[in-house]
Specification:
Helices cover 50% and strands 12% of the residues. By secondary structure, the chain is of the alpha/beta class. It folds into 3 domains: 159 residues, Nitrogenase molybdenum iron protein domain (Rossmann fold, 3-Layer(aba) Sandwich), CATH 3.40.50.1980; 97 residues, 3-Layer(aba) Sandwich (Rossmann fold); 175 residues, Rossmann fold, CATH 3.40.50.1980. The structure holds iron/sulfur cluster. The site of iron/sulfur cluster has 9 residues, from loops. Iron/sulfur cluster binds next to loops.
Length: 493
């Protein structure tokens, strides 16, 4: 990708890497069309509500310690990230540290949306800086500021010398993109352009982009076998840590959708290699990932030794549980980073994926390659029905009703709850490390087994709940949507 750190604006995923939110077909067709450059996203004439990308951008930035987020917009937009702010405090407490990050909204009103409020924004930045002495300031935008063309960049440039800490304008207007993951890229761009400094020396560290560092101590232990120290980003990161990430030996991530922009940006700008393997979920993922880290950091021998020792402990147990999972059928709905990785793990465990929904789909990553998770599935001749739907739950319900799988897996609680109300056992893949490495793959397999062994909760709930979907909707044939897409160029709903 061509990274332009002189501009505070980042092109959307749709424009940069051809991401889409509407498709129905199969995994092989999706990948084939991506490779040939013929894949076109479909639009819906009906859409359920989705997520605002600013939530992802603000959530990422507010997780950094001792910074100030000044959200320039109406209070309703600022409130969208209240839960992220709360979560950041909880995650810091869990680690036994304090995160004094401040989150302030400028509370734009009707008058501001007509006449602009650049002067109040300026005053608010200076007041926040004086009152809280943050180590960096991120001034974020909203739809309202984007629509009226509020010149946030000029205000930021104007106060730069006065505040004496790094300050960046962050353009996260929600209307920019249907793909909320664009918010991850926007936050990475702000960090790359305002915080990260050119390297002075190389260190035995590895940048690890993740959400909530729940496996922090475990990963520190694993990497100590290779004399490597992980730097977890951005949850509980400090500005000092972030300023040095250009000095690491490599960058990796728990999810390609989350880590792609930062990984590629650090590689392009500072030559820090980005680990482009399948993710460390399941056996194949974990081993491929460790071997790639070993290769890039010149620690292959240590990586092989670790793999060998861990296989002895876990593989027999995983093989044993696989006997009970064999033949189960699953539907899953997740962000694309996890959809195709978790499909691979389910396949590894002997569970057949009958349909996978990805909340969006990136045709290619920033380096021009098809995402490694897709490539792996195709090379191993795994294919299944697939669709791209930005949390369009009514489509999930139709698919569950038709395929009657043994199991539904999602990383979004709202989606999982609806499956349970429908009588389908569901596993909420909430924690990003829930399938990480050998140990958690075994635990994941056990969770699946527990979910399908006792189905009384789902059955009882389904009997008592009246869902809003009519028989007419359930009778609609999702398989035929593709034909409609092919003939009309858009999905019929
Ligand atoms: S920024 Fe736009 S999309 Fe996001 S919450 Fe505000 S109005 Fe909604």
């Amino acid at each position: 990708m061509a990274l332009n750190l002189n501009s505070s604006n980042v092109a959307t995923r749709e424009n940069r890497i051809g991401s889409i939110t509407g498709y129905i077909g199969s995994l092989s067709d999706l990948a084939d069309q991506s490779n040939r450059g013929t894949l076109k996203g479909c639009s819906r004439c009906f859409s359920q509500s989705s997520t605002c990308l600013s939530t992802c951008a603000l959530g990422q930035l507010s997780a950094i310690r001792e910074v100030a987020i000044i959200h320039h917009g109406p209070s309703g937009c600022s409130a969208a990230s209240a839960d992220a702010y709360y979560l950041d405090k909880v995650m810091a407490k869990k680690r036994g540290i304090t995160n004094n990050t401040v989150y302030a909204g400028t509370d734009m009103n009707e008058k501001d949306t007509i006449f602009g409020s650049a002067e109040s924004l300026r005053r608010i930045i200076l007041e926040v800086n004086q009152r809280y002495s943050p180590e960096a300031i991120f001034v974020t935008s909203s739809c309202a500021t984007g629509i009226i063309g509020e010149d946030i960049d000029s205000v930021v440039d104007d106060v730069r010398e006065e505040v004496e800490v790094p300050i960046a304008a962050v353009h996260c207007e929600g209307f920019k993109s249907r793909i909320w993951a664009t918010g991850f890229d926007i936050s990475d761009h702000a960090v790359l352009s305002s915080i990260v400094q050119p390297p002075k020396q190389k260190r035995d560290t590895i940048n690890f982009k993740n959400f909530y560092e729940s496996a922090r101590s475990e990963i520190i232990d694993i990497f100590s076998n290779f004399d490597l120290e992980p730097i977890f980003l951005y949850c509980n990161s400090t500005i000092e840590e972030l300023s040095h990430i250009s000095e690491s030996l490599a960058t990796t991530c728990i999810c390609g959708t989350l880590g792609n922009y930062l990984g590629n940006g650090l590689e392009e700008k500072y030559g820090v290699p980005y680990i482009r393997s399948i993710n460390p979920l399941g056996i194949a993922g974990f081993e491929t990932w460790l071997r790639e880290i070993g290769k890039v950091t010149d620690r292959s021998e240590a990586a092989e030794k670790y793999i060998e020792a861990q296989r002895v402990i876990y593989i027999p147990k995983i093989e044993e549980i696989k006997k009970e999972l064999k033949g189960l059928k699953a539907v899953l709905g997740m962000g694309p980073g996890y959809t195709f990785e978790v499909s691979r793990v389910l396949n590894e465990l002997g569970i057949e994926v009958v349909w996978a929904l990805a909340w969006h789909y990136d045709k290619k990553y920033e380096n021009g390659d098809v995402p490694p998770s897709m490539e792996y599935l195709l090379e191993n001749e795994v294919d299944f029905k697939a669709s791209v739907a930005d949390q369009q739950n009514y489509e999930v319900m139709n698919i569950l009703n038709k395929y009657q799988p043994d199991l539904y897996l999602s990383r979004h609680p709202g989606s999982t709850v609806w499956a349970i109300k429908n009588g389908t056992p569901a596993v909420y893949v909430a924690d990003e490390y829930m399938i990480f490495g050998y140990k958690h793959t075994l635990e994941f397999a056990q969770s699946i087994l527990e979910s399908i062994h006792n189905r009384s909760f789902e059955k009882n709930l389904a009997r008592r709940v009246k869902l809003p979907y009519t028989d007419w909707w359930y009778q609609q044939n999702v398989d035929e949507f593709l034909e409609e897409v092919k003939s009309n160029g858009k999905a019929i709903r």
